[in-house]
């Protein structure tokens, strides 16, 4: 999915059809122009195994947990269960 979506967007010309946003003109973003992302380093959270091809799934799970204000579990992420869950939503 991590390769398919960008390839599709590029081949379809989707991004070329969009009007770019000038973030500096939006009040809420003016003070963030120099530092657009606040990065927090957290230790002791679940990580994917070396050689795993589940990068997209891990990113999605982290985004879902953090956007809901939840703590990312430190006892691992059940990749098989999450695949079934997300597949059922499609």
UniProtKB/TrEMBL annotation:
- The name under which this protein is listed is Ubiquitin-like protease family profile domain-containing protein
